[in-house]
Amino acid sequence: QVQLVESGGGLVQAGGSLRLACTVSGSIFSINAMSWYRQAPGKQRELVATIISDGTTNYADSMKGRFTISRENAKNTVSLQMNSLKPEDTAVYYCNAFIIATMLSSGFYYWGQGTQVTVSS
Length: 121
Known about the structure:
Blueprint: E1 3-7, E2 10-13, E3 18-25, E4 30-39, E5 46-51, E6 57-59, E7 67-72, E8 77-82, E9 91-100, E10 107-111, E11 115-120
Parallel strand pairs: 2-11
Antiparallel strand pairs: 1-3, 3-8, 4-5, 4-9, 5-6, 7-8, 9-10, 9-11
């Protein structure tokens, strides 16, 4: 059983920083893309950033230059460093990963339970 567990959310003032982390556990053969998404109240879930196994990254335009995604393959973790936070960054942040559980199985996307980030003005 694969599990993704996020940590690091909380309340921060505008201009501040937070670092989110997500650890993948369970039956894992390989992890390809790892991503962070977010969902603000009343809005659709949106992609924040993606990092694939070779370290290639991709960011949503509004996060470029403020957020940095990174991963430690040996520890099956992905992190999101968020700087210069704005009130509009307030949302529940979700970890997502494309995981192949065994050498003979297909890959699936898995989600974490989410962690709340609140940025006060």
